[in-house]
């Protein structure tokens, strides 16, 4: 049998042993070793594979990844830029909610997964595919986040999760077996040394875990952080920013020092990433409770998200009724838990987002802040919707002091 142009010879040798055709599967593809091996393995199982690669702000050569997937036998490759939707439809609701999981984690990965999975399901529906597949492991949160979104948006979809299938994980118990499989099947193997930890990046954050980081006593090694500078060596002059909010959403950022202005959601967020990264803002090192019942050590960089968390918290406190805010804080806690656990598209998740958005109607105004040496410091705020009455405060204090004077005169 002749090989088709651009097709590795090993593909022909495999065809005789392939399983019965199983139809089309849409694979959430990253271009890395794991999902490249999964792509070839799915073909061996009898699937026609369509690769879906979401550009959600990670540093990636998307054209190279497209060519790689096609060379490995993908029937088609979709590369979709979802950065703007990620900011406007996922990050902004989290900003409105002041979403934070277990007091510290700003949910960067948890917010990205339903955005990616939505695109995956969209391609499945376009292609008429009954299956989707992903490369998430069987002990992490991402498998849950991907699959709950897929089932919510398309209840009839079937999910293929190779790392939970004995025929896959018994065949590939470690990285060495994956590397051997890759070499055997013409899958390009990384030539650069692998970092002794895993990373996952999107526009909002980057996470580091596993490997040498699994020992929670080990500090972050030199060279780990990629989105933020070391605060100790960051600039000795702060950047002072003014961030304007409408309905709890940032609509404008101005750099007071150099006059830079950003208004569109994506440009605004990317600019804040740059400023925060320059000053080493947004680093955390935590142990968190995973949905699957285990504790996990994670190191995160969330530059722009950290600035917006502090700014929104301030303008909300300035403009929201005290009793409403007490209730909203409870909703935010539940919102964060649902997002972390993968329930973005659940009925309760949609209800919470609606309630939180309603609470933000009067959350408008401008916050001035300083970004400097790993810290965000609020400098001031102004709002047409402020519930702060300077005159009332001044009069109450005046009369309190006046009553003391009167009492003393009467003695």
Automatic annotation (TrEMBL):
Specify the pathway: Nitrogen metabolism; urea cycle; (N(omega)-L-arginino)succinate from L-aspartate and L-citrulline: step 1/1; Amino-acid biosynthesis; L-arginine biosynthesis; L-arginine from L-ornithine and carbamoyl phosphate: step 2/3
Task: Show the GO cellular component annotation of the record.
Answer: cytosol
Q: Which UniProt keywords apply?
A: Amino-acid biosynthesis, Arginine biosynthesis, ATP-binding, Cytoplasm, Ligase, Nucleotide-binding, Phosphoprotein, Urea cycle
Q: Which reaction does it catalyse?
A: L-citrulline + L-aspartate + ATP = 2-(N(omega)-L-arginino)succinate + AMP + diphosphate + H(+)
- Domain called Arginosuccinate synthase C-terminal: residue spans: 197-402
Q: Does the keyword Glycosyltransferase apply?
A: no
Q: Which residues form a coiled coil?
A: none
Entry's EC annotation: 6.3.4.5
GO molecular function terms noted in the UniProt entry: argininosuccinate synthase activity; ATP binding
Top EC group: ligase
- Could you tell me where this protein is found in the cell? Cytoplasm, Cytosol
> Mind telling me which InterPro entries this protein's record contains?
Arginosuc_syn_C (IPR048268), Arginosuc_syn_N (IPR048267), Arginosuc_synth (IPR001518), Arginosuc_synth_CS (IPR018223), Arginosuc_synth_type_1_subfam (IPR023434), AS_cat/multimer_dom_body (IPR024074), Rossmann-like_a/b/a_fold (IPR014729)
Q: Which PANTHER family match?
A: ARGININOSUCCINATE SYNTHASE (PTHR11587:SF2)
What is the recorded name of this protein? Argininosuccinate synthase
